[in-house]
Known about the structure:
The structure holds two protein chains of two kinds.
Chain A (H helix, E strand, L loop, with lengths): L6 H17 L12 E6 L6 H11 L5 E6 L3 H11 L5 E4 L3 H5 L19 H6 L1 E2 L2 E2 L2 E2 L3 E7 L1 H6 L8 H11 L5 E4 L6 H11 L17 H15 L15 H4 L3 E7 L3 H8 L4 E3 L12 E4 L2 E4 L6 H14 L1 H9 L9 H4 L6 H12 E3 L7 H17 L3 H19 L2
Parallel strand pairs in A: 1-2, 1-3, 8-9, 11-13
Antiparallel strand pairs in A: 3-12, 4-5, 6-12, 7-9, 7-10, 7-11
Chain B lengths: L1 H34 L17 H7 L2 H34 L4 H9 L6 H12 L7 H8 L16 H26 L3 H9 L6 H11 L1 H16 L3 H7 E2 L2 E2 L6 H10 L6 H28 L2
Antiparallel strand pairs in B: 1-2
Helix pairs in contact in B: 1-13, 2-13, 3-7, 3-10, 4-7, 5-7, 5-11, 7-10, 7-11, 10-13, 12-13
Pfam families (chain B): BPD_transp_1
Subcellular location (chain B): Cell membrane
Main location (chain B): membrane
Amino acid sequence: MGAEIGRRGFLVVAGLLGLSACGSDTGRGGSGDGTLRHWYHAYGEDGVQDAVRRYAAAYPGAKVEVQWNPGDYDSKVVTALQNSAVPDVFEAQVKVDWVRQKQVVPLDDLLGDTRDDFVRSLLDSQTVDGRLYGIPQAIDTQVLYYRPSLLSKAGVTPPRTVDELIDAAKRVNAGGVRGFFAGNDGGVNVLTAPLLWSAGLDFLSADGKAPGFDDPRAATVFGKLRELHQSGALLLGAPTDWSDPGAFVDGLTAMQWTGLWNLPKIRAAHGDDIGVLPFPRLDSRGAESVPVGAYSAMVNARSGNVDAAKAYVKWLWVEKTEYQTEFATAFGAHLPARRSLAAKTGDGPAKDVVGFVTEGGRIANPARWSSRANTALTDAVSRIAREGAEPTGELRAALQTARDEIARLDR
Amino acid sequence: MRRGREALTFWLFVGPFAAGLLLFTYVPIGWSAYLSLFDAHNTVAPTEFVGFDNYVDVLTDRAFLDSLGTFTVFAAFIIPTTVVLSLGLALLVNRIPIAQVFFRSVFFLPFACSYVVAALIWKMSLFSGVDSGVANTVLGWFGVEPQAWVGTVDPPLYWVVLVTVRLWLQLGFYMILFIAALQRIPRHLYEAAWIDGASPGWQTFRYITLPGLRGALVAVLTLNLINAYQAFDEFYNVLGDSRGYAPFARPPLVYLYYNSLGSGGQDLGRGSAGALVLALVIALATLLSGKVSRRRR
């Protein structure tokens, strides 16, 4: 009987079904009732969700619905920005592509005279072509945690240069406690930037128009990571990764590179036997550094209520300083994005970190540094450090990809 | 009249499925082919036509070529291993006189487990790099130093983790396919062979069992081939993290995922070009394997 049903008839029916399916799409449409939808990624710390819902409920200017997004939040935002009026407000790190395609709106006018109070490198990280697209919510940073008792037992001082770090890792590596942990990939992903900074280099040049690692010193510093890999002092294959305090808390390693946000758990485990350091420098031409990054509040250009959304962002992230302080410090350790608030927080290690951020804070994810360029560079670093590939040739390939990507952004 | 009703019945049954197939499979494939000719950064309605630039781009990208190469080798290893082991299991379970259903279920059960869950158990418990990991404990009994299974590149111990988890997950499924095929081989063939004096071991297997399994073999080979190139779940969960994926043992789909949909930088044109190249590679490999198995006849 198949013969009676012509191919054309089949297509007509299939086409009609397809059209009717399109017609019932309800996922879009602005929020006509003036409700603002505010997206967050799922913070791991307890209490954050309650807090941001509380802030939203307290906003007098409009009804705000908070959506909590577990899973691959960054991809979800990218997809939403392409054609959806939802969310009105969201947290993210600005990307040049979003600005080029006019998916987000500039927020310079929200800061007013508070501009100088925000940590400069944070604002820079959210600025594209001289305009600010995100209001920093808090400072995320990473530091080198160490156990002073284990270091002094091995007769080493806290490392201030990359060579000292390698030496210290080797000497404290004993009796089931490894020397250093920076992720199960041996620090390839999380240490690439600090290593560049330690040699006085960066992902991008100061003006962002060229790669910042076109220098023989890049090969030298990634060679140091290779040395660390060959030392046998690195912890690899831990049950948790660098972003989790597990390995350090469980005593699997004497030093770990991880987020400041883990300070409360680490303190609970080791009490006063903890010290923090910025990432050491390679030599006198480089500098100690900590990566600085954070989600910022941004406004969707397709929002039906851009002005209302901006007013809400201004209220929450510029005016309500008590919320900003609570958001940054009450649930796991972050720092407020404003210097006047950061100066008031913390004691002991947290106080030290405020100093690291002001003196050596570097942008962890520059807007002009694309994910493709980043993949090319970390691939190269991985081959150099883990497989012993020849550094200069590997980096040359990464440089080429980075140049292509920069050229694409300015096309 | 009757003819009209027959047509209606036909559409009632076939229509929803056909519409779904059209809407969710063929339209996206077509759209993908369209996107692959454009610079489609962060958009599904691109305007900048770039011809075959995206194809040139992926085909000259060392990372993509490496991943295709690696997974051709992976397929060449995992397919024969899977076929031999699952056929072996099927023969054993099929012969067993007691508790056959029990054994069949035991070997089939892992197939019901999620790839993600299994990958995490393999990574964090069985092959954890700490001294107390299961594999390291076993090594310890024999006085071998603990290994960082997932973290060791030279020798590439991570393959042990990836291959064992895949075999554990999929052997049962292919075993069931083989058992079904084995039970369809008529018993009288074996009786005739026995009467004709064929020896019951290898000779019977070679001339009766194996030819009877040809259909199942081709199905298992093809499914395995496609699965090998489309590997994602266990690789992503064992070797990847939110920041990225190591440049080794990176499946083509993981490469495409990070480069095309990665955080904040969707490049749908290049991703579509890569996906179509991968589809072409799978189609060619399938044709090739079909040709080889036909020539064997």
